[in-house]
Amino acid sequence: MNVIHLKYPHQLAQEIEKEAYSLAIGFFDGVHKGHQAVIEVAKQKAEQLNSKSAVMTFDPHPSIVLGRRNEKVFYITPLSQKIDTFKKLNIDTVFVVNFTSDFAKLTPEEFIKYFIVDLNVQHVTAGFDFSFGAYGKGNMELMDQLSNGKYGVTVIEKQQDEVEKISSTRIRKALQDGDMEQARNLLGRAFEVPGIVVHGDKRGRTMGFPTANVQAMEGCYIPATGVYAVKISVQNKWYDGVCNVGYKPTFNNPDEKQLSIEVHILNFNKNIYGEEVVVGWYKRIRSERKFNGIEALIEQIELDKQQAIAYFEQLR
């Protein structure tokens, strides 16, 4: 897969061939089921037109540049994760457009010239609510009106589940609540956090439950504190596990807040310090709480482990 970073005004490198593209366009945070519907149609159009399939996304989030949010934006999929997901969807080319103040000032007509026509896009696919150009004045109806026969346009209608529209907003709320089953249903896959295994306090080992202490990749969102049934990818193989996310109140001073992600990997006995891993989150078993002594904690961890085992058994 080819990844091309663009900034307005852009100049495509000479070594990049002037391919024809069927383009799926959007911010695509999470690359959830709704986004996948857009991308799938773009791939189908690419086959029909004998062109390359492509995705155009933006970085950073437009609200950061436009100042529309006071709270910090968290990404369901940071850019590197998003690109990895596009690769898994067998996209040929990803255009990452640097969202800057100058880019935000482009009129809809200018956006189409520089980022559709000049890139030799033969077909554009986007969701019904995609907007572009200064103040979001461009919509998919205008995209079609301004095509002048140079490219085709497909608009994907609202994708819903049994409740409401599938959206990144709903997924963020599920992650904040620790509702990983809801997140997985909306994403079409488990929510994943990549990281690296680092040294911890090794207390789990002394209690009979050795854990991998995972330092998450910068920019990843960590779900609500608690104990979860998870899967963890180690050296490209997935293992079942039980994970504690939190501040270890049984042992730590409550005033010293140091969030940790500790995964007890089932049926696993290897030293994996320094290994890059991916944690897939499946179900929240319980909230984090303080125990009166180590014995009570060990008893609860065993119950958590059995719950995780039973959960994955019924998934198979």
Automatic annotation (TrEMBL):
Reaction equation(s) it catalyzes: FMN + ATP + H(+) = FAD + diphosphate; riboflavin + ATP = FMN + ADP + H(+)
Part of which pathway?
Cofactor biosynthesis; FMN biosynthesis; FMN from riboflavin (ATP route): step 1/1; Cofactor biosynthesis; FAD biosynthesis; FAD from FMN: step 1/1
State if Chaperone is listed as a keyword: no
User: Origin, by domain of life?
Assistant: Bacteria
Per the UniProt record, which EC number(s) apply here?
2.7.1.26, 2.7.7.2
Enzyme category, top tier:
transferase
**Which CDD domains does the protein's record reference?**
FAD_synthetase_N
Report domain Riboflavin kinase positions: 186-313
Keywords from the named record: ATP-binding, FAD, Flavoprotein, FMN, Kinase, Multifunctional enzyme, Nucleotide-binding, Nucleotidyltransferase, Transferase
Q: Which GO terms describe its molecular function?
A: ATP binding; FMN adenylyltransferase activity; riboflavin kinase activity
Gene Ontology BP annotations:
FAD biosynthetic process; FMN biosynthetic process; riboflavin biosynthetic process
Q: Does the keyword Protein biosynthesis apply?
A: no
SMART domains linked to this entry = Flavokinase
Task: Give the family from UniProt.
Answer: Belongs to the ribF family.
Q: Which PANTHER family match?
A: RIBOFLAVIN KINASE, RIBOFLAVIN KINASE/FMN ADENYLYLTRANSFERASE
Full protein name: Riboflavin biosynthesis protein
Gene that this polypeptide is encoded by: ribC
